Amino acid sequence: MVDTSGTxxxxxxxxxxxxxxxxxxxxxxxxxxxxxxxxKNYGVWAANVPAPLKPGxxxxxxxxxxxxxxxPDLDNSCLSLCFLHGELVGHACATKWLYDEGxxxxxxxxxxxxxxxxxxxxxxxxxxxxxxxxxxxVTIMGIASSHPAACNALCNxxxxxxREIDLAFIKQHAASVLGCSTPRFLKNAPVRGxxxxxxxxxxxxxxxxxxxxxxxxxxLQTYVAEEKWPFGELLDGHEFLVLLSVPEGSCCVExx
Length: 256
Ligand SMILES: CC(C)(COP(=O)(O)OP(=O)(O)OC[C@H]1O[C@@H](n2cnc3c(N)ncnc32)[C@H](O)[C@@H]1OP(=O)(O)O)[C@@H](O)C(=O)NCCC(=O)NCCS
Hints:
Elements (H helix, E strand, L loop, with lengths): L15 E7 L5 H14 L21 H8 L6 E8 L2 E13 L2 E11 L8 H8 L9 E8 L2 H8 L11 H13 L4 H4 L16 E3 L7 H12 L12 E8 L11
Parallel strand pairs: 4-5
Antiparallel strand pairs: 1-2, 2-3, 3-4, 5-7, 6-7
Bound molecules: coenzyme A.
């Protein structure tokens, strides 16, 4: 369930303006604007959410929680923003940590104003990260999400198709990438399904995030019907794990 109550502004696709900020450059006002956007547009709690959270109530976020949970290591974090006529209409938080010979980069939060979805805003905010020096040492990019479009937006990073994603790569790295992650909600999330070798199991982790799945499940059905979904079914409190290998030289920033 999303808040589409506001009136959408008249716009053309090239009216969207994108910007990426390095963690230490993000100020309190910008974080507050992201927290408001999230609280209005993210979703509602599921029927089985544990108390004191209330089923059907909006999933909310404060600026302080956003920084703490999604950008825990500020120097290694980034915030990708999208504006329409000066109004914030989308944000993607990203952070990274040492992994293997490089860094694992992770989209820790992704939300687009419900009035402006399906215009590749999420895709473009993630792609913009490639133009920031933050991306230089990133060798793997990942996301944990119950929303097929969020997984799809990450797959668009290198113009790959969701159905062609390298599942063997995800299986090989998921548990160890999460194991050395800095955001607590990822570090403590056990991998499930296919990662435990369960035949037909989904590529997911138990993040115990009980957001209502009505919208993602509806969208998932369309992906499944079009045979575009390789990650399996969506279970309560779980999120899909998508990891991509980042080809060398993907960062668009000129090397010094
Ligand atoms: C998930 C979310 C961020 C996607 O934002 P968006 O700007 O609409 O995404 P994009 O337009 O970049 O779409 C990415 C892909 O998903 C597809 N998609 C998006 N919404 C879709 C829908 N409702 N049904 C089917 N496909 C959809 C797009 O067509 C696109 O695929 P393509 O490149 O093959 O055409 C947005 O729906 C949202 O904010 N949802 C609520 C919060 C949430 O669940 N966030 C994810 C948590 S990490």
